[in-house]
């Protein structure tokens, strides 16, 4: 590998382990297509352990940070709400580590790309709030836990003109997949850059950062040509950090 490849940190999920799982002991999990999308875009990906006390040390060596999704929820305490039955599963160790990584990345000014749950955590960092359950909060909502396979589109999003996202994909709409039951309610300091047909927020960005973007779908599946453009723009921004 050449030194010119920007180093991209990617956060994995954490599983507790047990009978019938990959390991009886705790282990990290990360779909290969996250790493593949970074490689295809010209980056050098590395998985980051959940060690909050080393977040600054890790970020000091990175050119960009991707915060991935997972089958768990963001703690409502982060946006000032009580947890109820609509938020069944938390992973506090992972969330603590990702909060530290995001904080260190933003302080250092390197690109941050939040995907699905990563976008929701980024919204909380930027002072926003979440719907703890879309079906309960948004009348007539689309099935954001799409019934068809995740490597197929679930719905269309409309992209806000003049946003960073619009500039990256060069179009006013995209076909995206959908795998979430929570969503951004109030974006806080973030700018909303895309919405689903039912009005649910699908992308946000930090107007004060060169590249700090969150998307609710999973662009690592490369369903729409805009997905590849997102990873290419992110890696290009990371390359400028290391230049």
TrEMBL record:
GO terms for molecular function: gamma-glutamyl-gamma-aminobutyrate hydrolase activity. GO terms for cellular component: cytosol. InterPro entries: Class_I_gatase-like, Peptidase_C26, PuuD-like. Keywords: Hydrolase. PROSITE patterns: GATASE_TYPE_1. Gene3D superfamilies: 3.40.50.880. It comes from the Bacteria. This is Gamma-glutamyl-gamma-aminobutyrate hydrolase.
């Amino acid at each position: 590998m050449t030194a010119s490849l920007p180093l991209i940190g990617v956060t994995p999920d954490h599983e507790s382990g047990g009978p019938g799982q990959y390991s009886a002991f705790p282990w990290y999990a990360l779909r290969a297509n996250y790493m593949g999308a970074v490689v295809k875009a010209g980056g050098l990906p590395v998985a980051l352990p959940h060690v909050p006390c080393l977040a600054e040390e890790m970020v000091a060596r990175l050119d960009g940070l991707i915060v991935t999704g997972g089958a768990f929820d963001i703690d409502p305490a982060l946006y000032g709400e009580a947890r109820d039955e609509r938020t069944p599963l938390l992973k506090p160790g992972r969330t603590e580590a990702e909060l530290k990584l995001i904080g260190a990345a933003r302080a250092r000014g390197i690109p941050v790309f939040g995907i699905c749950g990563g976008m929701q955590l980024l919204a909380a960092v930027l002072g926003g709030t979440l719907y703890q359950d879309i079906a309960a909060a948004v009348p007539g909502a689309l099935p954001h836990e799409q019934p068809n396979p995740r490597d197929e589109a679930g719905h269309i999003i409309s992209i806000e003109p003049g946003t960073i996202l619009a500039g990256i994909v060069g179009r006013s709409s995209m076909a995206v997949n959908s795998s979430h039951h929570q969503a951004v309610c109030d974006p806080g300091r973030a700018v909303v850059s895309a919405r689903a047909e039912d009005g649910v927020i699908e992308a946000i960005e930090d107007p004060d950062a060169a590249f700090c973007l969150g998307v609710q779908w999973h662009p690592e599946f490369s369903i729409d040509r805009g997905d590849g453009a997102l990873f290419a723009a992110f890696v290009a921004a990371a390359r400028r950090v290391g230049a």
